[in-house]
Specification:
About 35% of the residues lie in helices and about 20% in strands. The protein is α/β, with parallel strands linked by helices. It has an eight-stranded mixed sheet. Strands 5-6 form a two-stranded antiparallel ribbon. A two-stranded antiparallel ribbon has the order 9-10.
Length: about 375
């Protein structure tokens, strides 16, 4: 899957174990309200859960339509299309000019391949799930030859060695339909999804600081939408990055927005991911969660220590390539909050009526490039 800030690859075992501990049955329905790369949804689907993935960004919805909603019945058709796309001659166009010449996210030889393949995908008028599969394949192929530290707010001054490699599409890891039933992917507002979807458990991984995922991954948004928007700045961001703001990227609004969201969720239990670098502290998060289930929520907090993403290791530089600041810290703690009503134990799923909050510390780990 694509490099992603806040990737849950290393946290997957803890997330899956937390959901298992709720004893919701072999094939629970799981609502993923901020699906991102769909790494969590894909893992849950593999284990038999019926997953309903939601995200408001088009690229994230496409990833969910591929990895969560689409089943392996599309594999043969995907192989044929991807073989065809890999054989196309490069053409150049908007993508090359914007992201390889005006900016340097990709080498022009690969940008020209992206232009040719993306135009052909649009020309074919594929049905939605198959289109999502090949768009995901194209995003991942481009991600393997990019020249960034993992976010698209900037690019490297000199080409990354991988940028010289030839772009090559691969068939994504499609899964069979789970025992829990057909999964779904929706491009919708998290508040609307929380009000409209019923689930056994909701997994909630909201943005935690001022940097929007649309701003961090604007290239993928433009690649999926193929609307060829006007851009601004050195990074050639879509102009609508300035308008499509999430309330969760606002420090003053965050706590109120999260409170409103959590109080709308229609699930038997919740698992919430959040970083100690986020807008609210662990203590404030636990206080907020404790108000759920008529103020009788049970909370178990699981903390994992991580090395921060590679951009933090490199440091802070100005546009001239001069180091201009100091990174405050090189490690952070990612928390999982397991939240249940008073009749369900937050640790084992066994019935209980007392209220408590405690922490389980899960070693240390190193985050991948985001």
């Amino acid at each position: 899957m694509i490099k992603y800030l806040g990737s849950k690859r290393l946290m997957l075992p803890a997330i899956l174990a937390a959901i298992d501990s709720l004893a919701l049955g072999a094939c629970p329905t799981v609502l993923d309200l901020f699906s991102g790369t769909s790494r969590v949804g894909h893992a849950l689907k593999r284990r038999g859960s019926r997953v309903i993935a939601c995200d408001h960004n088009s690229y994230a919805h496409t990833l969910a339509a591929c990895y969560v909603q689409s089943d392996d019945e599309h594999i043969d058709a995907a192989h044929r299309l991807i073989d065809e796309f890999n054989a196309l001659a490069p053409t150049g166009g908007y993508f090359t000019e914007t992201f390889c010449v005006c900016s340097r996210f990709f080498h022009p030889k690969n940008g020209a391949r992206v232009d040719a393949i993306r135009d052909e995908i649009e020309r074919k008028g594929l049905e939605p799930e198959l289109k999502a599969i090949v768009l995901t394949s194209l995003m991942e192929a481009a991600d393997r030859v990019d020249s960034t530290t993992g976010v698209q707010m900037a690019y490297l001054k000199a080409w990354a060695p991988r940028a010289q490699n030839d772009l090559l599409l691969r068939v994504p890891d499609l899964l069979a339909r789970p025992l829990g039933g057909k999964c779904e992917a929706h491009r919708m507002d998290a508040f609307d999804a929380a009000r409209s979807v019923e689930a056994d458990v909701a997994y909630i991984d909201p943005p935690y600081n001022q940097h929007s995922y649309l701003g961090n991954y604007h290239v993928w948004e433009s690649l999926v939408r193929w609307d060829k928007p006007e851009v601004y700045g050195v990074a050639c961001k879509r102009v609508d990055v300035r308008q499509r703001q999430s309330v969760f990227n606002s420090r003053p609004a965050f706590a109120g927005a999260l409170t409103r969201l959590l109080s709308s969720v229609r699930s038997r239990a919740l698992v919430v991911s959040f970083s100690d670098e986020g807008f609210i502290t662990r203590a404030d998060m636990e206080s907020l969660l404790a108000m759920l289930y008529q103020g009788e929520a049970r909370i178990r907090t699981i903390g994992t220590d991580y090395k921060r993403y590679v951009g933090a290791q490199i440091g802070i530089y100005n546009p001239r390539g001069e180091k201009v600041g100091r990174v405050g810290h090189l490690r952070n703690t990612e928390y999982l909050y397991v939240v249940t009503p008073p009749t369900m134990d937050a640790g084992t799923g066994e019935g209980t009526r007392s209220t408590r909050s405690h922490t389980t510390r899960v070693g240390t780990a190193t985050t991948p490039s985001p």
